[in-house]
Amino acid sequence: MKVTRALQPFLPLCQRLLPDMRTLPGILNLSSFPTLPNLPGLPGLPGLPSRLAGLSLTLLKATALDLAILAGHLLLYPSGIAQERRATARPALPRVAGAEDPALLPTKAPLPVVLLHGFIDNRSVFVLLRRSLAQHGRHRVESLNYSPLTCDIRTAAELLGRHIEEICERTGSSQVDVVGHSLGGLIARYYVQRLGGDGRVRTLVTLGTPHSGTRVAPLANAHPIVRQMRPGSALIEELSRPAPGCRTQFVSFWSDLDHLMDPLETACVDHPDLLVQNVRVTGIGHLALPVHPAVATGIRQALDTARTGASAGARTGGRAGTRTGTQTDGLTVA
User: Fold this and answer.
1) Lowest-confidence range among 40-49, 111-120, 150-159?
2) N or C: which end of the chain has fewer CB within 10 A?
3) How far apart are the first and last CA of the chain?
4) Which CATH number fits domain 76-81+112-332: 3.30.420.40, 3.40.50.1820, 1.10.10.60, 3.30.200.20?
5) Would you tell me how many other CB atoms lie within 10 Å of the CB of residue 297?
6) pTM for the model
7) Are 190 and 154 in contact (CB under 8 A)?
8) pLDDT of residue 245
9) Can you tell me the distance from the alpha carbon of 89 to that of 87, in angstroms, rounded to the nearest whole number?
């Protein structure tokens, strides 16, 4: 069976999930599958047929889900082209004189959440995530549309910074949480690391973001932003520079079936100066990350954990758990 050009984009993904395939260069050119049952006896290839079958089924499910999400998103896309209307500031609840019991005081509202979409997309991609956040008490959720004609991640990061300052001024909040999908996560990270945004962003959640650059779609290099997302680009190198004292907590959700990330681990944050939690998502692709309810639950938990940590830090006179390092977790969807 010969591999067609249509399957070539998935070869790096298959080689990553089945590293044994690299030891047998001709395995993808076998003339027929009947020879596969004999492969378990070959050194270094235990149970390969069943693994191939499982991988094929998983890829099929993830691809079908991504296609269904893409179809639905195309229908919603026109609704997200315009910038959303800004919410009016809510007046603060009056404090009851003499009320010393903490149970009688108004509960502190969660921080505003800013959603930032990916390349050639808009805020409509977050319809389901916004609903999930609102259903669990996060009503101050806003999206930022950056222009599809934007040619520089740095310029988009400056726009994000102005948007966050406006939100803080309007809501009276000193910080926000940010969720960025794909390119949106890279824009937000640049704002945090290089433009002093760590003073405003408490938690940055990224979904399928090429933190170390991605090699997919080489023909797309005509677009300046795509060139900035390549491994070794000036912008990627800039993000690898030291960032001592960065106060933002990073949570990166990455999928082992994300065909837009090459290599797959590029969606993980790997920086010695940052407080990072990388969460591997198994069973879905790139487009499902901002849509799937299991990922939405993980995002809410990440924001709630950061909120609890910040409260503990306030009680102890500092930021609770302040340290650098990387924590790795997993989330199985299918």
Assistant:
1) 40-49
2) N
3) 28
4) 3.40.50.1820
5) 13
6) 0.77
7) yes
8) 96
9) 6
